[in-house]
Design brief:
Layout: H1 2-10, H2 17-29, H3 33-67, H4 70-119, H5 122-127, H6 130-172, H7 174-181, H8 184-221, H9 223-228, H10 232-284, H11 290-331, E1 354-361, E2 371-378, E3 383-387, H12 394-400, E4 409-414, E5 417-418, H13 424-429, E6 431-434, H14 445-450, H15 458-467, H16 471-476, H17 494-508, E7 512-516, H18 524-537, E8 542-546, E9 558-563, E10 566-571, H19 573-579, H20 582-601
Parallel strand pairs: 3-8, 3-9, 6-7, 7-8
Antiparallel strand pairs: 1-2, 1-4, 4-5, 9-10
Domain ABC transmembrane type-1: 37-319
Subcellular location: Cell membrane
GO biological process, one term: oligopeptide export from mitochondrion
């Protein structure tokens, strides 16, 4: 739905479509202008030979039926063979140059689109599905590739044939030229009317396919959930419904395309019949020779074919226009978090205070406040825990530190510098995050750990794996550190994935740590060893812990209790228990739940 609304906003009047796409593509065409110029030259040479063909055929026919000169007939046949050889060579050069250039431009467009997606803020991805975005990178870009590699060259070729053949027809016989052109208004009418319908139909097909891809991706990623709830029939139905909707839209597009080309074919060849009839009468009257009629007929067919091809190209261009709009709309997206024009450098390493000054935040205009009136300073080396009920704003507050979002009001500063004045690369390079449920890349264990630092050695990777208590299960794996973890790490347990994520952050060696219950999935012994590694790592560093299990915050220097986006309590574990407020109630409830679980387990 969002995609269709975007398309409505970006809709371009049909007459402006070529200008719109050319204007957006020209910066990408400019570096390849010499290759395009050479391809155009070869196209003109090939087209010129094509235009000369009916004239040569005229002389060939007259040599056979009027002059009856065998040697002249042989010479003309050899000339035709030579012309076709040259035309084949020119066609090869033109098709290769344009095809190669189109491939390079599309490859660059795909890279730029992916690079741009990586710069967008997390809030953008909450509004777009993965299936939709991958559809933009694949099917939509493929349609643009068709424009660059085929449609542009055909547009030039058929335009050359149309105007060249019309010029020669006019020189040869003006009356027959008017008969040939009589079909042009009808063809242009059908091209505009059906071209717009094809554009809308093609856009709908792409939207439906993107929706079906989203369903398929969600089902595959959540395959364990699907199978554990025995919901295979449901997911099969959802995907089938999506494909059926795409099929219905595609059939509608096929019907529109069929009517379009059927009407164009009828009008075009009806015109050829009229030329044949009128030309035949002129031959009978002795006004023209048979060779002249054949030559004229070939030019008339060339004009008709050019008009039909141009109408077809217009329809295809209209279909590609929807894809072009979506691709360039995506490239035009700007994240809510932006790089400063003149970033300030961070002070030298050694720990910086992190300050929240009257911070308010909400995820969109009109939505409720997720954070309100946050006043906080975290000193270097201080361990601060965030606790509170679900939805209190803990993860939101932590997400402001690496600038996944910016405050709606107020400001955050690091070492006395507003975060919005720092380079995102430098800021995020100084922060290490261990999420509660880390996702790994579908590569090897070594590559996942090495993701924390470019050029990390095997010795460094093994050292941090040992510190994160991951070495023991890695060494038992079939291929050790070269074992592949599967998509998103599905071959490993949650606890194993978490220890790899911890090792990755240890390798990064950041100045600031954000731990989202980083030890929640570890057994008691592993948790103890990992916490020892964290105690060394946190020395002299600013550390923020999002705590869901309150037993993990007892050694924090301060505990901040959030409720409905506000800081309602601040103190140490003991102070907050003595206060008897929200923290004490949460702790007591969790303590009772733990006791009940222990009694059940015996």
């Amino acid at each position: 739905m969002a995609d269709r609304e975007t398309n409505k906003k970006l809709a371009v009047p049909p007459i402006q479509v070529p200008i719109f796409v050319f204007r957006r593509l020209w910066p990408r065409l400019r570096p390849h202008r010499w290759a395009l110029a050479a391809a155009t030259l070869f196209l003109l040479l090939s087209g010129s030979i094509g235009l000369a063909f009916p004239l040569v055929v005229r002389h060939l026919m007259d040599a056979a039926f009027v002059v009856m000169d065998r040697s002249l007939l042989n010479r003309i046949a050899l000339i035709l063979l030579g012309l076709f050889t040259l035309q084949a060579l020119f066609n090869f050069c033109q098709v290769y140059l344009l095809g190669a250039t189109g491939e390079k431009i599309v490859a660059g467009l795909r890279k730029d689109l992916f690079d741009h997606l990586l710069t967008l803020s997390p809030d953008f991805f909450t509004e777009r599905t993965t299936g939709e975005l991958t559809s933009r990178l694949t099917s939509d870009v493929v349609r643009l590739q068709g424009v660059l590699s085929y449609q542009i060259s055909e547009l030039l070729r058929q335009t050359l044939y149309l105007f060249g053949a019309l010029t020669l027809l006019t020189v040869m016989h003006r009356q027959l030229t008017f008969t040939t052109l009589a079909v042009a208004p009808a063809v242009v009418f059908f091209a505009f009317v059906f071209g717009r319908r094809l554009r809308r139909a093609s856009t709908e097909v792409q939207d439906k396919i993107a929706e079906a891809n989203t369903v398929a991706e969600e089902s595959i990623v959540q395959i364990r959930t699907v199978q554990s709830f025995v919901r295979e029939p449901t997911e099969r139905g959802r995907y089938g419904a999506g494909i059926d909707a795409a099929l219905k839209a595609a059939l509608n597009r096929a019907l529109t395309r069929g009517v379009f080309f059927g009407a164009i074919t009828f009008v075009t060849f009806g015109g050829i019949v009229a030329v044949l009839w009128q030309g035949g009468r002129m031959v009978l009257e002795g006004a023209i020779t048979g060779g002249q009629l054949v030559s004229f007929l070939l030019y008339a067919v060339m004009v008709a074919a050019a008009i039909t091809s141009l109408a077809s190209l217009w329809g295809g261009y209209q279909e590609a226009q929807g894809s072009a709009e979506r691709v360039f709309e995506l490239l035009g997206q700007r994240g809510t978090v932006s790089e400063p024009r003149h970033p300030r450098p961070l002070p030298r390493p050694g720990g910086w205070p992190l300050r929240f000054d009257d911070v308010w935040f909400r995820y969109g205009e009109g939505l409720p406040w997720a954070l309100r009136e946050i006043e906080l300073e975290i000193l270097p080396g201080e361990v601060v825990a965030l606790v509170g009920p679900s939805g209190a704003g803990k993860s939101t507050l932590a997400g402001l530190v690496p600038r996944f979002w910016d405050p709606t009001r107020g400001a955050l500063s690091l070492g006395g510098i507003d975060l919005r004045q720092l380079s995102l690369r430098e800021l995020r390079g100084a922060i290490g995050i261990v999420p509660q449920e880390p996702m790994l890349f579908g590569t090897t264990i070594a590559e996942n750990i090495g993701y924390g630092r470019d050029g990390a050695t095997r010795q460094q990777i093994e050292a941090v794996a040992a510190a994160a208590h991951a070495a023991e299960f890695i060494e038992r794996a079939p291929e050790g550190y070269e074992s592949r973890v599967g998509e998103r790490g599905v071959k490993l347990s949650v606890g194993q994935r978490q220890r790899i994520a911890i090792a990755r952050v240890l390798l990064k060696d950041p100045e600031i740590l954000i731990l989202d219950e980083a030890t929640s999935s570890l057994d008691t012994e592993s948790e103890r060893l990992v916490e020892q590694a964290f105690e060394e790592l946190m020395e002299g560093r600013t550390t923020l812990i999002i705590a869901h299990r309150l037993s993990t915050v007892q050694r924090a220097d301060r505990v901040l209790v959030l409720d409905a986006g506000r800081m309602v309590e601040v103190g140490t574990h003991g102070e907050l228990l003595a206060l008897g407020g929200l923290y004490a109630r949460l702790y007591a409830r969790q303590f009772r739940d733990d006791e009940a679980m222990r009694s059940v387990l015996g």
